[in-house]
Amino acid sequence: MLVQELHKTYKGALEPSLKGLSFSFPEGSIVGLLGPNGAGKTTTISILCGLVKADAGQVQIFDQQQNAANREAIKKLIGVVPQQIALFPHLTAIENLEYFGNLYGLKGKPLRSLIDQYLQAFGLEKAGHKQVRHYSGGMKRRTNIIAAILHQPRLLILDEPTAGVDVQSRTMILQFLREYNQQGVSIVYTSHLLDEAQTICSEVVIIDEGHAVVQGGTAELIARHDDCRNLEDVFLHYTGHALRD
Amino acid sequence: MLRLLATIRKEWLLLLRDRTGLTLLFAMPVVLITVMALIEDAPFRDYQELKFDILTVDNDGGRLGKYIKEGLGQTSQFNVIDSVEGAPVTEQQARSLVNEGNYQICIIIPKGATGAIVSNANKIVNDISRRMGMPENVLPVSNRKDSLHVTVYFDPASKKAFKSAIHQALDNFLTQVETDMLLERIKKQLKRKDAGEENDSMNIQLKAVGLKEQLTGPSQELDVISNSVQHNVPAWSIFAMFFIVIPIAGNMIREREDGSMLRMKLIPGSYLAILAGKMLFFVGVCVVQFYLMMQVGIYLLPLLGLPQLTLGQSFLAAFIVAIGIGLAATSYGILVGTVFKTPNQALNFGAISIVILSAIGGIWIPLEIMPPHMQMIGHLSPLSWGLDAINDIYLRNVGVSHIWGDVGKLVVFAIVLLCIAAGIEKRRLS
Asked: Which of A24, B73, B144, B148 has its CA 20 to 30 A from that of A245?
């Protein structure tokens, strides 16, 4: 993925959300897109997905430019796990996954077998026929991830996938992401849980006030500064201690 | 196609599991239609089926009183009452009974009214005879100078249209008596002139041209009267169909809030197919609502003593109109769901706007009885287009070829709203 000089100012906004954001990483990485509130993470993800158009700059994903002509092709390559539980609460997990699978053009037995496979992988095989509104937070998060990978994307973007889940679910999700990455899938991951990011991300991009303040290998960045013992120290080193609104 | 069918299935499952929503969509309109048809039955019957008691005080005792009483009695709308508690009603008593609201109308026929008419007829005939050189002043004429009046007292609460109808009827009776008497005198005078001649030239037909009522619809065998059921069932069905705005707008706002709309937009393929699936489903719900309400008019309301709903003869035309109304209502719901950010805003705006559009669109009371400027505004309401089309089918018995104007307006309305919604959504994303 190559992101070059992205600029974005929303209509009516006083400040630009992105001010020349640039970063890149190779295929097969797990990249942590980190930053304080208001840094521009959500805008960046929206541009990567093709939901929002940048005012200037370019995005290249697997050799394809993100533009109107390639938007649909790129959508096929990426899966997005939004921070919200983007599921229909009154439908069962299977009904939700069947619906989103159908939207991806999947149907019939191949879809059903894929759903069964993922439900089992995420420990939800017994709860597949339960309405999602009756699920715990962890179960919802796991189903939310399945809905994003049904079409076997090459790039998976996750926005705080473990927010509000118990330790067991979090461990399970992180373990799945590692295994999924080993299958060759690139992962972009945002979170405020920096210890979690440190354990899972091979690369880190820290952005603040609309531009990348640093990018590099997680271990390398920690080693670069004597006063930094972990990723949180690196984060504070580059973004400071001032509170953000 | 898979996206469209999947969306229809998803909406179907969601609706099935929302019991409150189901009740609001189907049970509430049934209750609404039943209540409105019952409440508005009396006002609709006023001039059609209800019989009014009319107090008559006949101080004349002559032919005029007899004509008026017989004439009113022969119509299906009036009961002529000339005695109360076994005694002939007096003028003062009649006035007091009307004033207290016990009767809506009282007619006082003055003493000597018939005599005055006879005298007037005689005077005219004498004058004609004189001009024709026949013997003059054969018929007696009264020297009375003051004119007599048949007096009518109305209950102060009587409606203007009712008063006007009574005035018209009484005027007709007076004219008829005067004409009859004049004709009689002319005949008598001519007989006198032709005395001894064999041929009877007096076969005068008074009414050369009569009045005949005929229906204007293409199939004249139907004779449907606009009654409470005939107005309220289609009108409130359209109102209920437009209330689909609330679940659609709520559904869209929830999908936006919980992120499922975002997920749908992240999936490759046109979001329009998803929107089309949603629209098709809700248009289907509207059509089912429409036919359920028609069943209420046909089967339930007659059990409650109301007339049965008559559907006209073109079922295809009614089906097309129901789809048109469904499209307009669904598009309105999508626009409301796009414009507003919270379900509460959408609920309040949606409900109030539909009540306003229905009030000006002739749902509550027919547009025809509104002031002209309100009628002009009312014709801008999509609910009035739907109601006009249904009335054309049910009351005027028209077919498919006659409804395209109204259906076209409903479809254009739907397209315009969808374009506005698309523009707003695009602007929001940018």
From this structure: A24
Q: For residue A92, what is the nearest residue in chain B, using CA coordinates?
A: B13
Contact criterion met (CB below 8 Å) for B321 and B311: no
- Global ipTM: 0.84
Range B51-188 classified under CATH 1.10.10: no
CA dist., res. B406 & res. B385, Å (int): 5
B chain contacts of residue A105, beta-carbon cutoff 8 Å: 2, 269
Angle B46-B52-B53 from CA coordinates, rounded to 5°: 165
State the alpha helices, DSSP H only, in A81-136.
Answer: 93-103, 108-121
- Residues 6 or more apart whose CB falls under 8 angstroms from that of A33 comprise A41, A44, A45, A188, A189, A190, A205, A207
Cα first-last separation, chain B: 29
Task: Out of B259, B264, B269, name the one closest to residue A84 (CB).
Answer: B259
Q: Where are the domains of chain A?
A: 2-83+154-239
Which residues of chain A neighbour B427 with C-beta distances below 8 Å?
11
> What are the start and end residues of each CATH 3.40.1710 domain in chain B?
51-188
Half-sphere exposure (CA, 13 Å, Cβ side) for B66? 5
Q: Are A5 and A22 in contact (CB under 8 A)?
A: yes
Q: What is the CATH number of domain A2-83+154-239?
A: 3.40.50.300
Rounded-to-integer distance, Cα B418 and Cα A40, Å: 32
Q: Are the beta carbons of A213 and A6 closer than 8 angstroms?
A: no
Candidates B272, B288, B327; CA nearest to B15 is B288
Per-residue pLDDT in tens (0 to 9) along chain A, 245 residues? 888 888 998 888 888 888 988 888 888 889 998 888 888 888 898 888 888 888 899 988 888 888 888 888 888 889 988 888 889 988 999 999 999 999 998 888 999 999 999 999 888 888 889 999 999 888 898 899 999 999 889 999 988 888 778 888 888 888 888 888 998 899 998 888 888 888 888 889 999 888 888 888 888 888 888 887 888 888 888 887 777 76
Test B18 with A104 for CB contact under 8 angstroms: no
**Which residues of A have a CB under 8 Å from any CB of B?**
10-11, 49, 51-53, 72-73, 75-76, 78, 80, 82-91, 95, 98-100, 102-105, 107, 131, 147-148, 151
B167 SS3 class: helix
Q: Do residue B268 and residue A72 have CB atoms under 8 angstroms apart?
A: yes
The CA distance from A130 to the nearest CA of chain B, in Å, is 13
**B314-341 exposure pattern, b = at least 16 Cβ within 10 A, e = fewer:** beebbebbbbbbbbbbbbbbbbbbbbbe
Give the span between the Cα atoms of A194 and A181, in whole angstroms.
19
